[in-house]
Amino acid sequence: MDYKTRLRQIPLGILVGLITLVLASGGSVAWFTWRALNPRPPVAEFPTLEIPPEITTPLPDTTSPGDTATPETPDTGSVDQAPVADVDAQVYWLKDDGTGFQLVPQTVAVPRDASPSAQVTAAVEALLAKSGDPSQEAFSTIPEGTRLLSAEVKADGVHVNLSSTFETGGGSASMIGRLGQVIYTATAFDPGASVWLSVEGQALTLLGGEGLEIRQPMTRNDFNQDFQL
Fold first, then answer.
1. Could you read off the pLDDT of 87-107 as tens digits, one per residue?
2. How many helices (H) and strands (E) are present in the chain, helices listed first?
3. What is the C-alpha separation between 56 and 66, in angstroms, rounded?
4. CB–CB of 129/184 below 8 Å?
5. What is the 8-class DSSP label of residue 218?
6. CA-to-CA dists, residue 58 to 61, 62, 153, angstroms
7. pTM of the prediction?
8. How many CB atoms lie within 10 A of CB 210?
């Protein structure tokens, strides 16, 4: 039997399987052969970059040599300070006690933080601004319109300078009464102080038409010794 006759005797299914196997084997061999001749290109490896730490360059110092930086103080808001309390002073009025007159005080407030001269000024101006104290039925014999020209506290006593109206009107009792009012009020902060009394800048040595002699200076004790209310 020849080759062609034998080939016809092989079943068709087996023949197809053999052909497929041959083709598959041939394909595998061809693939391995191609991979051997064409190796896979190597994968590129990238080098690792090392980033240096960031360096901060300080800003140039613009402060002049010798300058000292002042730390800022946080603003806590303005703090209201308590007002300074006033201090009590006395101004003196005249009161009729039935047998004569007496000097009676009335309390007034003057600034505590004021200078001694300013405090005396405030007290004397309060005396000249009113005609008396109705609550005590007390009055003043100082003529209306009398002005305080100056008041100063010095080492030798209290210097009071009044306008010329102080000398006008009234008899001896009125003159003595007004003199006592000024002497006592001017020494309200220092009862033992001496008072230098002037009218229009001239030392007052005689008061009124009757010419009441005035000591210079005069204290409260001097007044009580020289005059009877």
1. 889 999 999 998 889 999 999
2. 5, 10
3. 27
4. no
5. B
6. 9, 12, 65
7. 0.64
8. 9
